[in-house]
Amino acid sequence: xxxxxxxxxxxxxxxxxxxxxxxxxxxxxxxxxxxxxxxxxxxxxxxxxxxxxxxxxxxxxxxxxxxxxxxxxxxxxxxxxxxxxxxxxxxxxxxxxxxxxxxxxxxxxxxxxxxxxxxxxxxxxxxxxxxxxxxxxxxxxxxxxxxxxxxxxxxxxxxxxxxxxxxxxxxxxxxxxxxxxxxxxxxxxxxxxxxxxxxxxxxxxxxxxxxxxxxxxxxxxxxxxxxxxxxxxxxxxxxxxxxxxxxxxxxxxxxxxxxxxxxxxxxxxxxxxxxxxxxxxxxxxxxxxxxxxxxxxxxxxxxxxxxxxxxxxxxxxxxxxxxxxxxxxxxxxxxxxxxxxxxxxxxxxxxxxxxxxxxxxxxxxxxxxxx
Length: 371
Fold this sequence. Notes:
Elements: E1 3-11, E2 14-22, E3 62-65, E4 71-74, H1 76-80, E5 89-97, E6 106-114, H2 120-133, E7 135-143, E8 146-155, E9 158-164, H3 186-199, H4 210-223, H5 244-258, H6 261-271, H7 279-283, H8 303-341, H9 343-370
């Protein structure tokens, strides 16, 4: 990468020669101005207001415009004579925790590259010291004719520098917050938290400029002679009053659906629904019942209700009959099992019982005769 500034880092009495390299690049698509009548390009020419003549770059200097419009010329020699210690030096003034730097102050970013072999050792020393301390270095440097504020931090194995705005360049947020005293309910906060959890985290490397891609496709289509059709755009809410709770709930549902969670919940919900089939009533229709309960005057029963009652009574009777049969079979089986186990003793008891019965029957006529 091409360096844009050469100098040194002043770390106490240690001087580290470095080269300044841009850490970012602009991918915006730039357009040229043309004459609509013939497509000719429009160019800007530098013309002197006094004589209305075009002036070349060698004849152009710089000046400061006073409040009354007076131009005060300032030459490069005038600026070079100013006491500017940071003209070629990044002077570290302090080491502070990173959270003490207001993100509003962040400006352009640069990489600092060690300039030459002798700079490798002190460069590595500063890098490792920043890593171990978990701090960033606040520094002052001069670039493009003005002194700036910077922050040095470690990115991978490289020292990076972020240009910072001076504290007096940050405007106070006056008249920006809502004027009215707005109250937020806990239910709304809970839904906002649910939406944040649903959206979750994102891989920053996966984000890209959709508008730039659309412009590139538009340029390619017009270059090939294709007809460009307007894309469908969603209407913005504008200043319409919305139901915040409903909007949050719909946002949570939409976020879940985009992540594939809504489809699974929908499938689970559909699985719990069991529609009643018409064939069930035909199969359970009973024969005509001989006894019918009189219909209530206040709430007459329908034919379907009577059929269902008769069918239920019939099924209950069948269940009771089957239970009795099973019980009798079980009793018979248990008695036969017990009799088989003690067959020898049962036979003796039966034999003696039969003898005694015969004697009683024989004695009975005799008593009657004697009477």
